[in-house]
Design goal:
By secondary structure, the chain is an alpha/beta fold. Helices cover 30% and strands 21% of the residues. It is built from twelve helices and 14 strands.
């Protein structure tokens, strides 16, 4: 089955006084209907910029190249009028900050009904209100009738997140982009939000792109994970496999930095996105770096490596698992201690 969304070599840059910021630098990924793809990585890695690039919500100053195929149509070739055909209906964006995404002087009911009417203008006001209540009920909003009369400041962070999800769902989207859906929420509300997102995906059958810093959320919610660093995807694969057996040195360091894995920080700092590296963007922070890494940019290689004896090193890797690292370059002669190096 063809992917619902195909992102192919997308680059997004911005002109600033300091120079050109290469926020997204050659990203490619496929998202299938009914699947959840998670993007993880440090702040400034380009995740949110990529999310806004898909529905065409970057400012006019952004320079975007590549292709973004949605149902076979390249969104980057459409003008704003044509994009509105997809945006909000087939493609929904759940923004990362519900506190600033909702109008503080309008009731929840008014804002939700207005969004539904944008797609279902054949319904009466009563029918629109009933559908709004049904949406909130499906997202486990307590006392949905009462919440319709509430203002945003009267709701908790988790409740506002549900309202944004309801607004996103009202057009029956095929693609949902959720940017930091659990940001700023406490543990219980975060768990409820994850369950809500999972229910949304199951109820609508939509493909979902989840952008998050929360590695626990990504592990429990997503089918596939893409790890972004300095505007590039450096590792991609099945979520369970990636968290149990990360391949790229950056992914290993990222997971080792969380409390459950020792809280070991990655040394150094991420490269400036203004300065384009001639080699691997993780070179200065990588404990496995070699001279070659500073001279050439690695591709996304399959994580299966054949040794001199003909056996497959890393054969436990899930099919399709890839890492942007020369350790997996099939044209190189593998070292005998390769697996030991990766395990450290």
């Amino acid at each position: 089955m063809d992917p619902l969304l195909q992102i192919q070599n997308v680059k997004a840059s911005f002109h600033t006084k300091e120079g050109i910021v290469h926020a997204v630098n050659g990203v490619s990924l496929d998202l299938h209907q009914g699947k959840i793809f998670g993007l993880i990585g440090e702040t400034g890695s380009g995740k949110s910029v990529l999310g806004l690039t898909i529905p065409g919500l970057l400012p006019n100053t952004a320079q975007v190249t590549g292709s973004i195929l949605f149902r076979g149509e390249d969104l980057l070739q459409l003008d704003q009028k044509s994009l509105r055909k997809w945006r909000g209906g087939e493609i929904a964006l759940i923004p990362q900050n519900p506190a600033t995404s909702l109008n503080p002087v309008l009731t929840i009911g008014y804002q939700l009904i207005e969004a539904i009417a944008r797609h279902r203008n054949d319904k009466t006001r009563k029918q629109l209100r009933e559908q709004a209540v049904q949406l909130l009920t499906s997202l486990n909003m307590p006392e949905p009738q009462q919440k319709m009369r509430s203002y945003p400041f009267q709701l908790s962070g988790g409740m506002k997140q549900r309202v944004l999800a309801a607004i996103g769902m009202c057009g029956n989207p095929s693609l949902i982009i959720a940017d930091e859906p659990t940001k700023g929420l406490d543990a219980m509300i975060r768990y409820q939000t994850v369950e809500m997102m999972r229910n949304v995906a199951h109820q609508t059958g939509a493909g979902m792109l989840v952008i998050t810093h929360d590695l626990h959320v990504a592990e429990s919610l997503c089918d596939t994970i893409g790890v972004m660093y300095a505007g590039q995807i450096v590792e991609q694969g099945n979520a369970d496999e990636l968290f149990q057996n990360p391949k790229h040195p950056y992914t290993q360091g990222l997971l080792d930095s969380i409390p459950g894995r020792g809280m070991v920080p990655i040394p150094g700092a991420a490269n400036s996105l203004i300065e384009q590296s001639t080699g691997c963007s993780f070179y200065s922070r990588c404990k496995h770096r070699q001279a070659e890494c500073s001279l050439n940019i690695p591709e996304l290689y399959s994580c299966s490596i054949t040794t001199n004896q003909g056996s497959t090193a890393g054969s436990e890797a899930a099919e399709g698992s890839k890492a942007r690292c020369f350790l997996y370059d099939p044209s190189r002669q593998p070292e005998q201690n390769l697996l030991q190096r990766l395990a450290k």
